[in-house]
Amino acid sequence: MLAKLTAKNQLTLPKAITQAVGPAEYFEVEVKDGQIILTPVRIQRADALRAKLAELAIEEQDIADAVAWARQTPPTSHK
Which ranges carry the SpoVT-AbrB domain (predicted)? Predict the structure, then answer.
């Protein structure tokens, strides 16, 4: 199957291809042996958040501590 790359570097995948891999909003893109390889990535919002927290080395207890601190801190007025 053919797919055309536009002047804006956009590529429309043929419907048969997208149906074969199922719904995916994001694709991992890599070049291997002169070929572009697209791998569907199914990211759920919570998964993305967990990945970012892990990247920042933030643990569940850190979040619980921050929430507890925020709940006991009186609100400030913004003028």
Answer: 3-46
